[in-house]
Amino acid sequence: MAKYFDVHPENPQQRTISNVADMIRSGALIAYPTDSCFALGCRLGNREGIGRIRSIRNLDERHHFTLVCENFAQLGQFVHVDKDVFRLIKAATPGSYTFILPATKEVPRQLPHPKKKTVGVRIPDHATTQALLADLGEPLLSSTLLLPDEDEPMTQGWEIKERLDHVVDAVVDSGDCGTEPTTVIDLSGGEAEIVRRGAGDTARFE
Q: Before 153, cis peptide (omega within 30)?
């Protein structure tokens, strides 16, 4: 059964956040809120966690996982960013955007796209997520909590606990965080390509 953590949306309780971070370090797969919708997350090198996310979401090897980062300095360790891309991302973060960029050697080999060698990265504007990332000290390997054959992500923590009780280890709930996933921008080719229109405004990339 999944543990259920009720977290204040504006002032996350540090003790609770630390408990969740300890679970992640020990190999847990969690469902947690972001500034767009709920996501599944585990530690970066957690092979079992990656497999569980693929199984829950029915994902193939071409799926772009996302590294959810605390800040720009952390993001820069895992993807190659030139000056033009730096300015674009800096202006849009933190926010509801996922950027696809060439992965560095810091990214575990099983994560980047098999042909493009790219990975998704993002910096969320969400107090609970930021508190968790700060305690963890590293990115969360994540994927939108969108189940196969469903059009919209689940929005309620209790519903996620009820439906995924035996396939995730913890559910972090800090209130409704919406149904719209991030806007996905592919910057790996030098030009901004809008892959998915979502919660983030695309005007600056068009």
A: no
Q: What is the pLDDT of residue 171?
A: 98
In whole angstroms, what is the distance from residue 194 CA to residue 183 CA? 8
| pLDDT tens per residue, range 64-120 | 889 999 999 999 999 999 998 989 999 999 999 999 999 999 998 888 888 899 999
d(CA 71, CA 55): 29
The DSSP annotation for the chain comes to: --EEEE--SSS--HHHHHHHHHHHHTT--EEE--SSS-EEEEETT-HHHHHHHHHHHT--TT---EEE-SSHHHHTTTB---HHHHHHHHHH-SSSEEEEEEB-TTS-TTSS-TTT-EEEEE----HHHHHHHHHH-SPEEEEE---TT-SS----HHHHHHHSTTT-SEEEE-S---S---EEEE-TTSS-EEEE--SS--GGG-
**CA 77, chain centre distance (Å):** 16
List Cα–Cα distances, 62 to 58, 74, 143, in angstroms: 12, 24, 13
Residues of the chain with pLDDT under 50: none
What's the rounded Cα separation, in Å, for the pair 57 and 79? Answer: 25
Strands 118-122 and 97-102: antiparallel
Tokens of 28: 């847990």
Q: Which pLDDT value is given to residue 153?
A: 84
Q: What is the pLDDT of residue 29?
A: 98
Calculate the CA 15 to chain-centre distance.
22
